[in-house]
Amino acid sequence: MKEEELIQLEILKKEVAKTLQQSYAVSLDIKNWKGQEIIYLQDDLAEKINGRISEKWFYTHIKSNSGKLPRIDMLNILCEYAGYQNWNDLQNKFPQPKTSKIKPNKKYKSIIFIILIIAILFSTFIVYQFFSKKNSYQFCFVDSDLKAPITNSPIWIFWMNDKESPMVSKCDSMGCFHLETKSDKIQFIVKSAYFKTDTITRIVYDKKINEEQIQLKTNDYALMIHFFSKSKVKNWKERRQQLNQMLADNAMIYQVYEDGKTGMELYNKKDFINKLTVPLKSLKNIEIIETIYNGDKISILKFKQNQE
């Protein structure tokens, strides 16, 4: 890959991230994206330009630096999504001038060396001043019913910052989230498949208070659907009635595949209930990824099927 094309590819990545931020709270640095952000991108591509990419292709060509330029048809898809006609259009709008090498003489070398030393010392001082004033906080999440740490369901944190887009991170295996900030106001959104989304705001007056436990309410419908897919039931009629009460009539239900080829499959309410409740059901041991409610019913459901 030419150096000019490498720079233009990085520009395209930033343009794609900016476009996705119009619909979802994601990091501007595409290298930080993981499973959920990639699903957001797949959804937005399909909705806006009817385009499709696999998770495997994203990790190979976009998230990692393979040193090779992706196929031109895939570049055209991402360029169209970011608001350009195609890859050539983006290249024309961001031309990279060729640089000429100038051999400096000994006098200029000495001046450049002195300036470089001063810049390093100054940068070190600024960095030290910036980081030394940060305060450290830790939030741990517990089940509001069991009063126990949430360790069996991944928890995602969207940390809100007034001066930049939200930063996304994942809680550790004990359900805890650690952050460092100079601000007295802390605000973030908590998301987890089997617990209700919550927005947390804290005004920290006492710097000595740097740890807190926060209770999350369970997402009962998501837990029940997960349980239904793993259990054996004799009364199928009652099970269908329960599912009918949970799902909105116009619910959109997505099955996400991790094979890097299929992408996802869309079910309506009736098809999903049939596949989950008939004796020879095809949906078993499903894991909920995301639920969105309209009132007290699920309007959007995303899930994947684990291997038994």
Quick recap:
The chain has helices spanning 3-21, 35-49, 55-63, 72-81, 87-93, 106-132, 220-228, 236-246, 269-277, and strands at residues 135-143, 155-161, 164-170, 176-181, 185-192, 195-203, 211-216, 247-256, 264-267, 286-294, 297-305. The protein is built from 9 helices and 11 strands. 21% of the residues are buried.
Sheet with the most strands: spatial strand order: 3-2-5-6
Shape: flat
Number of helices: 9
The residue ranges in which pLDDT falls below 50 over 5 or more consecutive positions are: none
- Helix/strand/pairing category: alpha+beta
Tell me the number of strands: 11
Q: Which sequence of SSEs, written as H and E, runs from N to C? A: HHHHHHEEEEEEEHHEEHEE
- CA radius of gyration is 25 Å
N- to C-terminal distance: 43 Å
Written description of the protein model:
The structure is a single chain. The protein is of the alpha+beta class. The chain is built from 9 helices and 11 strands. The chain has 3 domains: 91 residues, no CATH class; 82 residues, Immunoglobulins (Immunoglobulin-like, Sandwich), CATH 2.60.40; 86 residues, no CATH class. The strands form 3 sheets. The protein has a 4-stranded antiparallel β-sheet with strand order 3-2-5-6, with no helix packed on it. The longest helix has 27 residues. The model has no long low-confidence stretch (mean pLDDT 84).
